[in-house]
Please model this.
Amino acid sequence: MDTNQPVASTTYTPAPASPGMFGTSITSSVAFIVAILMFLLPFSEIKCGDSTLMNKSGLGFAMGQEWKFAGGMGQDMMKDMDTKTGKKKEGNAQMFIIAALGLGVLGLLASFVKSKGAGGIGIIAGILGAGTLIAFMFDVKKWFNDGLAKEAAEKATDGADSIGLDKIGDTMNNMKPTLAFTPWFYVAIVAFVAAAFFCYKRMSSIKS
Model:
């Protein structure tokens, strides 16, 4: 009896390498969620000196809501000029902010799909989301500066004693009102950029 039977060889197959944190949907989805949540917080403020007169959240811009009074100095005067500035559309700001919010939701949904195509959608959503927020910022600044210029022109031509942005600035120790963007607004931009980066890293880890 032949006892020298061939021994079956076994081939060792190493376990697949862990994709790491960047290879999962956690980082990109968290970044998109942070960007979306920032829309619930004040994005922009109208200030006079160190006092905040009015503010509006990202969601408020998207829904076309009025500016919210922050109270304190100048609250009564801000109510008087509400019909002149508070209810006026801020250029194309609403369109930009709706687009940014929609891109955030699209990017979040794409983050849960494991494919290179979905990763590419997430990258585009993140980059365009940050870009539309920047466009929104310039548009609101233009609206505000045009409003100040209009107030100054009306005051110079007819001398009308109307209550407006320029009047408020003159009353408050000759301080001009200013438009400021909150840290939450800039966090949203950074979150969109970070989400695009995380989507790129995840897409790179997915094998064709």
